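Target protein
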Amino acid sequence: MNIAIVGSGYVGLVSGTCFSEMGIDVTCVDTDASKIGRLQRGEIPIYEPGLESMVRRNVAAGRLHFTTELASCIDRVDVVFSAVGTPSSEDGSADLRHVFAVAETFGRSINRYTLLVMKSTVPVGTTHRVGSIVKAELEKRGADIGFDVVSNPEFLKEGTAIKDFMSPDRIVIGVESERAKGVMTRLYRPFLVNDFRCYFMDIPSAEMTKYAANAMLATRISFMNDIANLCERVGADVNMVRKGMGADTRIGRKFLYPGCGYGGSCFPKDVKALIKIAEDNGYRMRVLQAVDEVNESQKSILFDKLSTYYDNDLQGRTIAMWGLSFKPETDDMREAPSLVLIERLAAAGCRIKVYDPIAMDECRRRFGDMLVYCGDMYEAAVDADALLLVTEWKELRMPSWPVLARVMKRKAVFDGRNIYDRHEAENAGFDYYKIG
């Protein structure tokens, strides 16, 4: 089977590479000529563990190709995936311009039955709109060519995306024809040989499943952050509360970790989009509105604790930040809590020293020379009046407290992910603050 994937960003590149790893001939398409040029030279524009070697292996094997024109490969593919971005508009709705552009190109280009698969996260009803666009383009050509459009939302987690794709816990597919169902079954069966966990459903339900899943995970995070903030006020330990809650099998332990807020390309965007979808349909998502409000507030919690610690006098103080990406194992800083912290610290007149194992280049691209970029975690801590742990990278989880005590100007640690042992820190002479 031959397929094309339009959009060579995170979802498109990972998906295309993983399909090629299974022996499928894949052409990744992107209108960004510079990105395609880099990929053709073996340069990977994103960071994802294991992706670079997999791309190079499949390019060398002749199964993975890159081009800027869908029309150049359309006649030899059976399936076209649309994996273009759907960023948030100012009102929170998903920007679908690129999705509709793919539909128009598809309708103008196909010459035989071809399946168009919506991989991008799109509001309910979008897949049907895409089908109408394709049909209109065919009518302009006077062409009577069969096609189907299906919804196949992605559930990849940055940092473990290859594992998620190669061994998925489920695959959700919205279809309206047996022919389309047969093609998708054939395409995904190699990934689920022993347990075919494909959930076929109607298209609107598949589109909603993606939003609902991300919204639920975001809700758990914001709920625990709300509980953590209350724990601080009543003298409870949120880590103990979390364990007691998670022991209930109806609740479970996953995504019950309090912290300094969620970020990334999915949760913030999808929560806002689902709120807007509801508004457009005459309904108010009251729970999700609170989820979003809690998260936006939580991104400032480390700054608020630091400001209280220094009696609102941060002018001229040197602050070390460990971790910049929104989560470990990625260089993605989209909607990351670090962005809010940097802006608020800078506005308060702080000198900011930063370190992240992977995201330093991305941070430099965003902030230029306004920060001090350090080569390792301890360099960032030198002469610091406080240390903020923002992202729980593995190499940051067991610091040498004696080294920190020796190099820091003031022994104050603000743990935004609750990964340190309070007694260890305090026994080393540190003032230690966590979430909840």
Q: What stands out?
A: Residues 2-201 form a domain with the Rossmann fold fold (CATH 3.40.50.720). The CA atoms of residues 108 and 114 lie 12 Å apart.
